[in-house]
Write a structure and sequence with these properties.
Four copies of one chain form a homotetramer.
Chain A: H1 3-9, E1 17-21, H2 26-36, E2 42-47, H3 56-59, E3 80-83, H4 93-99, E4 103-106, H5 116-123, H6 138-147, E5 150-152, H7 156-170, E6 178-187, H8 202-205, E7 210-211, H9 219-226, E8 237-244, E9 251-259, H10 265-275, E10 282-284, H11 291-294, E11 300-307, E12 312-319, H12 323-338
Parallel strand pairs in A: 1-2, 1-3, 3-4, 4-5, 6-8, 10-11
Antiparallel strand pairs in A: 6-9, 7-8, 9-12, 11-12
């Protein structure tokens, strides 16, 4: 998009260069698409282990690039690195890149949890207590991200769920603290990655819905940590049931939040609107969110759907799992780290 | 498929005759399909106001019948009547048919609620306090159905939700009564009927999810009534959020049930298995239910998915909204009313 | 559903027993479903190599059976055998079963082609010239099937395509022989089997269409053979392009048939109606076929859509690939071989 | 997207202003999306009759704009007008806008056909012989578009079909002229517009395929005209069967082209590559096109799939019906008319 434009803007300015490690999965492809048309960075290398040697277009013909996937061998010749690797594979890479003075945005779960105990429990792998990076959910942690050289990009479910609860926990309404949260969230099937499992085949998933890992999903500790509590002695009861349904993109979250007392919908709405006043991608909506409203965008739509006399409150949030839940949010974080406008290249 | 049964019925026995009033909608078509192949009744008339005069095959070419939709003008010449009419239209018809000595299974919401106040609030229509029929959920009310000449077939969401809660409410575990239920349920789009609304078009619903009527759906009072309480002074907190997703058939229900204390999954499972021991269509499953497991069947699959230390319990249930949620259950009720085996013509 | 039939069969008559070898694929599951409710045979064994030891319900929970998949070790203790194995695996089995005096319906491509040369070219495997069974397309070869002890069930595309052309080739209209056929056919993804290939995953196939094997599909020689010609010196030009689209079931076929001269649509329609007069599952329709009209049925719907002045004719046919294109047709063949009514257990 | 960028580029240059008349349909929404992020024009007014007064975001929440739909009352205050109106409604508007010196890109069928006789036959409406604009398919008519002040944007099917045939007709291979074309094309359901017809509902179209207007579609004369012939005395036999399948976007076209003699695939491929050498959006591909390769892009992917000894040739082409088949191509035409790079704002 508009190469002449780039050159003109950048007169006397060298655009930062970017590489993606783990570029051949769905998040990597989405990152590639966004970064190719980003006006103020230059995408240079697309590293992908299993697809090394293949042209990007052979796997993603819709991407307008002649690039070829390369194996990653420790290069540090670009300014910024996005890591879109399977959980566990970033643990050794991020420190190396950070040491080399690179900006790093890691999309895995490796550096999200402060508690090695929670990490072991939910990721079935031990990790060092130091393996933690600032949790890069810009709507909550903008300043930490701005200061950071390396950040951990939130999980997709976590993004959708945290944004729908945070204003009630981070800045509680008077006498209306959160007593419990029951959360059901439906993910598009791309959330499972570019996969050849029978149970994710079109024939099995068309016309189908399937819950999984009820109460046990690895985003649980991440959500509670971002809300200033933890899974071992949580400050409120929390239960999360993820599902997949027959759509490719999106996360649709129903939050049943029990407040200490009844707060009218309009007041909660006002509170959320205030809370996210400076967050351009969090949209508090008066009508019901839909996946089609946020698909292919970096928006998180939030709607206060119901608030019963007994304090039982329903909040709905919706995102595109590959954009706001992964690649878009990663670029939003890069923008913040580079001092660009948060929305740059994302609208 | 019930061979013994055939022989008994057939010996010197004239099969009861059946008509469907409101046969051209999706529930009507599904009833037609089931009744056409039911071994022990004879489907005679298909009444449908707007489609009167058209051949059934012109609208549902997959149905193997030469029948023509007829306008209903008060005929009472068959033994059994299924009513699959829009809410409100059965109110005057059912008494006439009952008076004429017919067996009646009404699929609308008209006769479900005992409280005219609840009916007014949720159906936006007043009704007579007498306009109530036995609530025909066979897994809970088999005996009442057996005695009845006219019954009210449950709603689709209600079927799925009630069956997932009932054992814990109807026969509570010691010191483990139900304190609250938060329920999210996803319906196939056929639940909205054979409709030409833009928001139900393929282009709008593909890749989409949309919640609606959170906390306000008309099945709410029906669910609470079947669980021996009501919406005005409920014995436990209840919140229900319905959604539609891009599939045609099915209801997938996530029940977040807060029990007074923790009960292990296996114990709840055992309790449900006992409770539904004589209910052939309620299947307590050890693995996660899926819509594809129940689609085109009359089964309700139930799975105890999680039970946390604090008593927070997740139960999943799944049905086919057009079968167990409508036409199949209606035939199950007819079987019971006629003294046939409950599963006759349904397996 | 055939009540007279039941009575005749049942009086002092032991139902024939049936086994399925290769029961765990989609065709096998569909066969299981049909045979479980077939009134006049008894389904006994479900053989499946890779799934041996698993309960059928663990893989297909919608099937109402307690059966367990078993490994096949040469047993010959039931009367009838359906083989739903990958191509190549039936070659040695069928002769053994035939020798043991069993009725055999083979769903693979192994015994379809008379020409070993064509078999080698299209199946990339050599076979014996004797490895041929009667081609069991009942609408064309009813009498041969009736005589046979073992038959070869047609391919799914082949069924849909042959039935849409046969009346014009087998009983040509005067001065209107077929000069060329260009055929595009879209298959539901279940046609590729219960598969874990990335390119058949929901994420890849949702919103997608993909042609494959244009001019090279292995059903090509089968189609021409059934139409009394062959691929080496065909009596008319024939080109077939298969595609997959985002639906699970069905084959939708567009036939561009060039006739020697213009024949009006109504005359072609009449000719087809006559030709299929005694074929209960071939429906000549005046309106446009749709997959939903034939899904979950054994019908093949055929419509003469256009006939231009220059003889260019468009015929559309539609089937359910798993029913009329596989399991349903196999049971139709079994019915014929057993002397039952062709539609027995299939309506 | 990148407003700073705009300002810098445009120093001393006022960006042309643009309006869309008929902005609330799917093509209008897609135009809005593309033009909002186009670096070198300024989108000003969104006219939409039936939605006048509503915010654009109320109908298309994914669009990042605060605009409100307005009724069109003859305003001529922007430089460029896109018309995305139902057929028939542009006939009087285009001349007025052209007279006012505006650039006009009309997306309807009103000005495509030179022959009033063909227009009457296929659009069931008479029109003036003068009501013709240059046919704006840039891959074939780049120079005419560059000169024009008002153009007629091609139909979606027509774009896909013409681009797959043109090199063989416009610049025929020696002794290999085109004798006949049989064409099947599958459209995404968005091609039917934002519609509330029952037969386009999710419940009716999921798992379904339906052909329509075989041999009678209104793009037929447009296709032949672009290929220098006509429907009354065509220089080659042409038959077109359109279908809809359960996907939202895309046109997938199978062209069965009978050439006078056999030309090897590689030679045809080379010929197409040469022919489209200066056409950035026509991609001649060695692998099979898929809708997912072109969805959300302005590319037309073309693949020579098969070429039989008798000259029977299969060519596949794929586009996004809303982009290359409508809004994207319209912007491509605007770029050409304004002297911008053809791909400006489209990659």
């Amino acid at each position: 998009m508009g190469m002449q434009c780039h050159k003109k803007i950048m007169r006397g300015y060298k655009k930062p260069t970017v590489s993606i490690i783990g570029a051949s999965g769905y998040s990597g492809a989405e990152l590639t698409k966004i970064l190719l048309s980003h006006p103020s960075v230059k995408l240079e290398k697309l590293y992908a282990h299993t697809q090394a040697g293949k042209k990007v277009q052979d796997i993603y013909p819709s991407l307008d690039t002649d690039a070829v996937f390369e194996p990653y061998n420790g290069e540090t010749d670009t300014d910024i690195y996005f890591l879109a690797l399977p959980h566990g594979e970033a643990l050794s890479l991020v420190p190396q890149l950070a040491e080399a003075g690179k900006l790093v945005i890691d999309l895995s779960g490796d550096f999200r949890l402060k508690s090695p105990k929670e990490h072991s429990k939910y990721y079935k792998k031990d990790k060092d207590p130091d393996a933690v990076l600032p949790y890069a959910l810009p709507e909550l942690f903008h300043d930490e991200i701005k200061q950071a050289k390396a950040v951990s990009n939130p999980g997709c479910y976590a993004t959708s769920i945290i944004l729908g609860i945070a204003p009630l926990v981070k800045k509680p309404l008077k006498n209306a603290s959160v007593k419990s949260v029951n959360c059901s969230a439906i993910s598009g099937i791309s959330g499972a990655g570019r996969s050849g499992k029978v149970e994710l085949s079109f024939s099995e998933m068309s016309g189908n819905i399937r819950a999984y890992k009820a109460g046990k999903h690895q985003h649980t500790p991440e959500i509670l940590q971002a809300l200033d509590t933890d899974t071992f002695t949580p400050s409120f009861s929390f239960m999360f049931t993820p599902m997949i349904a027959p759509l490719v993109r999106g996360i649709y979250t129903v939050l049943n939040i029990q407040l200490e007392k009844h707060i009218p919908v309009s007041q909660i709405e006002g509170h959320f609107t205030d809370f996210y006043r400076s967050a351009p991608f969090a949209r508090i909506r008066k009508s019901m969110p839909e996946i089609q409203h946020v698909a292919y965008t970096n928006f998180c739509d939030i709607h206060i759907a119901e608030s019963a006399e007994n304090g039982s409150t329903v909040i709905i949030s919706a995102i595109d799992n590959l954009i706001k839940g992964a690649a878009g949010q990663a670029v939003q974080n890069m923008n913040i780290m580079l001092g660009y406008d948060e929305t740059h290249g994302l609208l």
